[in-house]
Amino acid sequence: MENLTTKMIAQYIYDSILLKTEELRKTYKKSEPQIGYLYIDNLLPEDLALKCHEVFPSQSKMRCLKSLREYKYVSAQMDSHDPLLEQVIYAFQDERIVKLIGSICGIDKLYADKSLYAGGLSLMAKNNFLHPHLDNSHDAERERWRVLNLLYYVTPDWENSNGGHLELWPNGPKTEPLVIESKFNRLVIMATHDRSWHSVNEVKIDRSRCCISNYYFSDEPLKNTDRFHVTKFRGRPEDTLTNIILDIDASFRMFVRRIFKKGIRKNPHIYKKKD
What are the two backbone dihedrals, phi and then psi, of residue 57, each rounded to the nearest 5 degrees? Predict the structure, then answer.
């Protein structure tokens, strides 16, 4: 583990994906008309995945996001954490991996994001949640479309009853979601577009669900219907009041972005590398 390099980690990831390429392509194609997704289990050698969890930062070393929309801990400042986590993050940005995933998902040209805009590390502890939402449609400079979300889970022995699982809402956030468990050493890849509503259900136990994430971008949107939009949240189907409040919230933020193209202030969730 001591002499591990980003390139070596990337090779593990590439080999795991390559081995299941045809199966993954079929899974994604079948789900693509609604929300394209796929997942790969046992992505990295178990000891390496366990090490990622062992060195994952505590809540106190991450930024807390707590509002009606979400409750979680995040960080993109990778040089503040164990170097292994930065190696793993950037292994997913290896050119061969980006190209292979593009081929599986039928996307001609994909770009990884060195700045980790809205990516990096996320931790969800007891009572944490993420309401149904559509991701911001673009990158930080509003030049490229956000098209794929990569979520790599590293908490061992994470069970279904724990909560903290990814939910996809193929028919919108007024129906029942499809739940994808946040299983240890699992990589989930999902499409992001104007219908890719997703959420994370509430964590029920006094443990932390840890995730390493990347976004890939493209020159073109995934769907012809895609238009620029800010991150838009909704309440769960049974929560009418939350829906009303979050609808007003999204409309106001969209109004602001029509006036200020890049927002009033820059999103702080990027990797500010020291010179």
Answer: -65, 155
Predicted confidence (pLDDT) per residue in 192-241, tens digit: 999 999 999 999 999 999 999 999 999 999 998 998 888 999 999 989 99
Residue 163 backbone phi and psi in degrees, to 5 = 75, -165
Q: Which two tokens stand for residue 252?
A: 């106001």
Q: pLDDT grade, residue 257 (50/70/90)?
A: low
Query: Degrees (nearest 5) of the Cα angle 244, 177, 14?
Result: 120
The residue type at 32: E
| C-alpha to C-alpha distance for 207 and 163, rounded to whole angstroms | 10
The domains located in the chain, with CATH, are: 6-259 (2.60.120.620)
Neighbours of 267 (CB within 10 A): 13
**At 24, which amino acid appears?**
L
The size of the chain, in residues, is: 275
Residue-wise DSSP of 35-60:
--EEEESS-S-HHHHHHHHHTPPPGG
Q: How many helices (H) and strands (E) does the chain have?
A: 6, 12
DSSP string, 121-177: EEEE-TT-EEEEEE--SB-TTS-SEEEEEEEEE--TT--GGG---EEE-TT-TTSPP
Q: What six digits make up the tokens of 64?
A: 């807390």
Q: Which amino acid is at 52?
A: C
List 146's β-bridge partners, or say none. 217
Angle at 47 between CA 44 and CA 53, to 5 degrees: 85
How far, CA to CA in Å, does 144 sit from each of 37, 110, 226, 262? 21, 10, 12, 13
